[in-house]
Amino acid sequence: MAKNKIFGLISVVVVIVCVFLPWITVVVEGKQEVFTGLQTYGSNFGQPGKVNVFFGVVIGILFLLKGKMAPRFNLFMAAFLAAWTFRNLLLFSRCEMGECPDRHIALFLSLVAALGAFVSVLFTSNGKSVKKED
User: What is the pTM of this model?
Assistant: First the structure.
């Protein structure tokens, strides 16, 4: 397996693991609430981690498939995952009514890993080797 695909698979696993880690801590009415990608109870964030997990699994499967169409679909999926994690970063780290949340490393790490998966897809070859002729 190519190094780019291994790096992409590791990046996807990091994105999935970051969904379960704390993203932000907010102090509301004297009590601290910790939000992850899946546990956002008591807020209007929804559960954006489900989308991260879904696209992470699909991208991981597409990294393992051979053929011409898998890298093409993987490019779209990885670009969407990178855009979605950037959206999560903006959504979760914004300040509201003068109260700014305490941001944790998993929120930023998920974006870096999603961008790493996208770059890995960009540099993955289709399985065809280019031959130079003199």
Answer: 0.86
